[in-house]
Amino acid sequence: MSQPQPLKKLLIAYGRFPPIAPDLKKSLERLGIEVQLFYTVDHEHHWFYRRVIRVINRYARSLRLIPRGGDLFAQHPFNLRNFVASNFEQACTQFQPDAVFVIHGLDFGVPYLSSLTVPKIGWHIEPGDEREFLIRNAKSLDVYNSFSQASVDLLVSAGFDGRYLCHAVDEDRFFPIPQAEQPIDVCFVGNWSPWREEVVKASLQVTQNVALYGDQWLKKSTLEPALFQRIYKGKEIVGPELNDLLSRAKVVLNASRIKASHGLNMRFFEVLATASVLLTDEVTEIDRHFEPDVDLVVYTDTAQLQQKLQLLLASPELRQRISAAGYQKVMDHHTYGAMAAQLMAQFESLARSA
After folding, report:
1. 132-150 in b/e burial notation, b at 16+ Cβ within 10 A?
2. Is the pTM of this model over 0.85?
3. 9-168+335-353 with 184-333: one CATH topology?
């Protein structure tokens, strides 16, 4: 029996932000893999889609000629998914990858992916475990990972090869700043949601020395205007400025976009990589990676959030102990180097079973 050929060229399809794909690319290239990135957002909006298809569909929905989510141009080559899929097919033809890794995101390219004979692995990283979306995409993939165990269980129960794959961190982007001063009691970075506003309001009853960043807060927040103006710093903070912010806060507050949803978002790994203290809501997968009250601090409701926040702000020694443990755990197990090795093991397993 002949040995499978080693994987040398990998095409990664992804939206663009946050920079998961380039960080993973860097770690895969250290393993000797040639990686090409296909950013779906660069191919989403043909002018005909923007000026014709989207406009007509909007009017047709408003007049109830088609249902919400309906599309009069579903088969048109310049429709959003079809145009992305055709450009993705062209990228594969030009690059000739040995394997494909698709990070969802926008679901696209199911018919073409189904026809590809190279190993195909996907990764679902969106909150919510939508059965229809997951199954539709899983049909074209050999393995479908998710950061949510609930999604994995759903895929497996439907007969697909669903596997768990959590987020990771690039230690060149997120790292401790030695002797950083911490003038901010609490920072929160994330787009508005009802649950997140409830969490921020609860923290403000403990301290108003808060820095808040994220989209949709200006439009949807019901915080008292003068207080909101003091704490709200902007809709976005990225790159070195984000690393600096996380390092300058005594406590970094985290809340899932959807209360009681599954999957650890990227903030878990980013915060701990800066050797900062993370105070987060309860997520099923936490115990799989971290020890609560040792590596990070977990609250189950807003009353417990306030209690634990008060304790953390009052004890620099406690913060130092937790931040050191969390940092070590992430560096040992959750860098993109570790993720790259895990992905390569999946691709090698598929190649052996082919």
Report:
1. eebeebbebbbbbbbbbbe
2. yes
3. yes
Residues linked to residue 279 through DSSP beta bridges, in sequence order: 253, 297
Q: At the top level of CATH, which class does the domain 9-168+335-353 belong to?
A: alpha beta
User: Where do the DSSP E strands lie in 214-350?
Assistant: 232-234, 249-254, 278-281, 297-299
Q: What is the pLDDT of residues 245-299, one digit of tens each?
A: 999 999 999 998 888 778 998 999 999 999 999 999 999 999 999 999 999 999 9
- Per DSSP, the chain holds a count of helices (H) and strands (E) of 16, 12
Over residues 127-180, the pLDDT tens digits come to 766 888 899 889 999 999 999 999 999 999 999 999 999 999 999 999 999 989
Two tokens, residue 6: 């080693």
Q: How far apart are CA 305 and CA 345, in angstroms?
A: 39
Residue partners of 83: CB distance under 8 A and separation at least 6 = 43, 44, 46, 49, 77
| Partner residues linked to 13 by β-bridges | 38, 102
